[in-house]
Structure formats: C-alpha cells, structure tokens
Amino acid sequence: MSEGGSQGARKRTAMDSANGDLEVKKAKKEFDFDAHPKRKIALQFLYFGWLYDGLVQQENTTNTVEAYLEAALLKTRLISSFAACDISRCGLTDKGVSAHKQVAALIVRSNDKDGEGVFWSDSTPQAVRDAYPRKDELNFVRMLNGVLPREIRITAWAPVPVDFSARHSCSGRAYKYAFPRTIRTLDVEAMQKACDLLVGTHDFRNFAMIDDDKVSLNKSYIRDFYEAKVVVKPESFRTSEDEDSEGLTSIQNQYDLIELNVSASGFAYHQIRYIVAILYQIGLGNEGPELVSQLLNIEKMPGRPQYKMATDTPLCLFETKFDSSNLDWRYDEVSTKGTLESMQKSWSDFVTRAHVLKSMIEEMKGKANEEVSNGFYEFVMSHPKPRKHNPIASLPKCYSLEERRDKYNTKMAKKLALVGYDRDYLDLDDDTDLARLICTLDEMHLKKKSEDWAAELLDEKNDERRKEIINEYLTNLGIDPQLGVRIVVDKLLNLAIDRLYETSEVARNLTAASYEEEFERRKRTLKSFNPLENVDLNSAEFSEHVKRLCDAIGICEHTDNLVRLRAALVFIKKHLSEEAILEHNKRAEAAKTKAPKQLALNSFPLGIPDQKHASVNVAAKILRLLNIEELRRLQTHINETLAAIQAKTIDMSKAPNYDQVQYGY
C-alpha cells in the first residue's frame, strides 16, 4: 500500500514484472506437482479496489486482483495452472470496488501430508507418497504476500473440504458505502426510513443492472435483506467555526461522511450503488422514502426507471459469513503486523492530503456568495448536478425482465438458425446441450474434429470428462473456457458465422459496388417484366379491381376491361406520374399571389416570458417563426442525408448485423 505515484506505477508494472519472472522460471527444471500432496484452502484477503479493474480476470485487461493473485500462486508454485485449481470466489466486486474480507477457495500444493483434507493426485505413485517426509504446513499467507502488490494482502487461510465453494457456502455478505454529507440539511432520518423499507425479502430487479445474457435473464432477483443502517461519521478535521456556542461539534457539516451499512443473503449486479443513488436523492429532499416501496412493487413498475447509480470508489465488501461459521482461520502474526503498518501509512497519506485540500477549500469559501456543494454531488453521482430534478418514478423505463428474455431468445434463435442448428434454443446450464452444439458446428462449419470424436463427446456420461473434452476443444480454437458459457457460445457461433461467409462465394464478392450493380440489374428485370402475364383477365376478381381503379380516377365504363385499364394507365402517366406532379406543383407555385400568407401574431405563442413591451413581444414571435422555418428546412436536409448515407454505406462484405435495417438483396 504505497504512497502517491508509486501506486500508479505498481498498477502498471506489477503484472509485467510477475510475468517476466515466470518466463525466467520456464527455462529451469519443471516443477513436479505430483510429488507433493494437495489440499483445498480458503484464502481471506483485502485489496484497494480503486487501483484495479475488478476482482475476476477479464479479456480486455490484466489489471485485475485475480490476475495478480494467479501470478503470485504460480510464482510460489502453489498451483500448476489457474484452470486446474478449482477456484471459487465469495463476492464478485467490480472495477473500483474494494474488499476487506474477500474469500476465495482453491486447491493448492501442501507440505503437510497428514493435514486436514490433504490428498494426493491419482497419478502419484504409492512409493512417493510413503517416502514423503512429515513437514509443517506451508505459510500460505507469508508466501503470497511476499510476491503480491502491497495493495493486495492475504490476511488468513483456513482448511476446507474439497467440495467447499466460497460462493455457495457463503450465507451472508456485508458492505459499507460512505459519501460526504454534501449539504448541511441532508435528511438522514428520511434516508433511514427508506432503508427500513429495504429490509426483508424482496425482488430487487429495479435496484440492479440486468445484462442481456442467459445467466442474468434467468436468475432470480429476490434477496433476503438483513440490515440497512445509515450512520453519520463526523468529519475528522472540524474547525472552531464548526463548533456551537458550547464548543460541541455535533453541528451538521458538509464534510461529515454518511456511511451505509447493508447485509443480505446476496446482492444483484450494482445493487448497492443503485440503492445509494436513491437514498442520496431522498436525503437531498428530491424524493420521498415511499419511492423505495414503489420500486419494490414489480407489478406496478416491472421495468427499472433509467436513473443513474452512485460512484464505485466508496463501496467495500466488508465481511463475508458462512454457514460453517467455525472456519478455522489461521493468521500469521508477522504478516498481520506488516499489513496493519502498511495500511496505517496509506491512511496517513490519504487523510493528510484530504486535510490539505480542505484547508484550501475553507480559505476559498469566503470568495463565494453562496454555499457551494455541487462538487460533492458530482463525486457521489459521477455526473454534473442537473438544474432541475426529474422525479425518478416518471423517468423512461428499461425493458422489463420478461421483455428482455423474449428479445434474447429471439436473437439467439436467429443465430442458431443462421448456422443451421436444428433447434431455436440452447440450455446454457446443460453441458450436453453445449456438446451437441459444438458437434453440430464442427461438422457443418469449423471442421476441426472427426465423426468418431463427436460420437465420443456425445456418448460421454462422465460430466467431468465431458467438460475436459469441451475445454480442450475450445482452447484449440483460441477460446478461453473460463470466460463463461454465454461468452463461449457467442464466440463459437461467431466463428461458425465467419466460416459460413468465408466459404460463400456470394458473400466474399459482396461489396457496396456489387450490391448497387445487382440492385440496378434487378430494377431492369422488373421493368421488363409484364405483371399481366400471370393474371386471369377473364376472372371476376380482375374485373372488380379494374372497376374500382377506374371509378376512383373517373374513367368511364367500357365492355373490355383491358381497354378500360389502358385508359387508366394513360391517365395515371399523364396526371399522376412523378414528373406530372412536379409540373403541377410548379404551376401551382407560379399561380400563387405574391402577397404572403398572413398569420395573426396574437394567436401565436410567445415561447418566452412576457417582456411587458408589445414591440419586443412581437419581434420575439417573428424571430421564433423564422427559426421554426429554418429548423424545418434543416431537418429535411438531415433526413435526406441520412437516407442517402444508409443507401450507400452498408458494408455487405461483413457478417450480418441483426440490428442492421437491411442485409442482402
């Protein structure tokens, strides 16, 4: 937990350094993990979230807590690979979010062959097991802290059963979120009333961000909320001006911190940050506590209003609870002392900087004619304070969960149909469905494996073996199996669609120029086509339609329907063609009197506050009319330009985009 710029430097270089060390290790003798016993352990750790892009590893960044943890585990040779250590996490914190008692469970190398839950690999010979010496267990805490960044600290470890899951065994999670009071009149009591409405079992979908993926759309948003408390944390650096007449410091202060403490069985994506946004508006007096009840009423409000969530930095996963509360956490005194000292140093750094800033602010306050608080607001809400607050319940609504499910299923069905899959759905929770999709795509498009391989995969009854085969296949395609089933399926379907168009001669040669050429050719074909060739001229239906057309444009009756139809065509060409209409409009324009149409200005709205001066009001109305006319002309030009761009810029050489208006001929 270093100071100032060193934190940013470590953020950029720690991962590179760890990877560089790993490359050096590869040149040495390969470490034999089968020569050592294994055990599953739980690791308790903390981290400063504002330095990292989230907990779990991601495709687009290596600056995640888990990436540094993986590098440390590999460097200390506690694991052979991250994919094989069966890792599970208690809480998935996002970018900017910190943790105090985060927990992960994984299988690691052990020294204590007689320890609780210790086991050997099946491939380890019995002679090696018998000859292995009795040793004290590895000091996991000190080993990992020796190679981790100082902003990520392992605080304890505990032995756990091999089937232990840090996620599923967790019975409760507690978070803290602190933000500045902002205004002296912040209504903390109203915020607490709103918090009381959160406690209990509710559907929190209107306090969550719901992604359009199978997992998010099919999960439940019902949570058991155990506690929600708002606590005022008085500001550390009160001045004499903050004291009342008796020298007490209970006066409300802009710099006081308002801390929200919540605990629940679990939390949905961004749930706490959305809750803070609502509580903040209630505290500012923009909303009432009853808004919480409205948002929890899914029948009346099935879709979340499009309000913004609070910022990420103040959020901290503070504690995790387990049903097996007797987890035997084992601490290392030396590491604990070092972590405390390092955190004290970081706290001193941040709090003294805060004091310097406050001193500057206090000195400048006298230069302003009114109390300034927008900076606090912009920090909490991550956007400028609007001039006028729009009631949250009246904001446009997001699609409901049910509507999102329908849209997702439709999109997935289109992709599956495009690649020739014989079903319009896919159960992402079923490995056998994924295996069936892989075999179909490989046979029709990817062509990486044989029919015997596909038959072996489809016939495999062992879930672990089937997963192993699938993971190997995905890895060979360059797809990371750890990305999640939804992402894996999307990548597979996109690969198949790419191959489909690579093998299509029409798709390869499809360009904007070839599209225009084909379009013109089809227009010429349609012009040379006689639509009457397939019409029964003697049918009663044909006679009735000719009669209706001729009656509409005033063609007199005739015994021969074709004669009457020809007369109608002559009339249409002469009077209703595009050229005829343009000519008619020109004549009509020329025939107009030069005197412009008059508009009673007293009947036209002013559009601005009354200026109490008749001449000024009339001038304003005239200017507004002229402006409206100019806006109409501009909008017409914009529409014409957009239409021309759409017609010219569709890139037909790329795979289809389902949001694109037009594709193909």
From TrEMBL:
It comes from the Eukaryota. It holds the Pfam family RLL. One of its GO terms (biological process) is tRNA pseudouridine synthesis. GO terms for molecular function: pseudouridine synthase activity; RNA binding. GO terms for cellular component: cytoplasm; nucleus. Gene3D superfamilies: Pseudouridine synthase I, catalytic domain, C-terminal subdomain (3.30.70.660), Pseudouridine synthase I, catalytic domain, N-terminal subdomain (3.30.70.580). Keywords: Isomerase, tRNA processing. Residues 194-323 form the Pseudouridine synthase I TruA alpha/beta domain. The keyword tRNA processing applies. Belongs to the tRNA pseudouridine synthase TruA family. PANTHER family: PSEUDOURIDYLATE SYNTHASE, TRNA PSEUDOURIDINE(38_39) SYNTHASE. This is Pseudouridine synthase I TruA alpha/beta domain-containing protein.
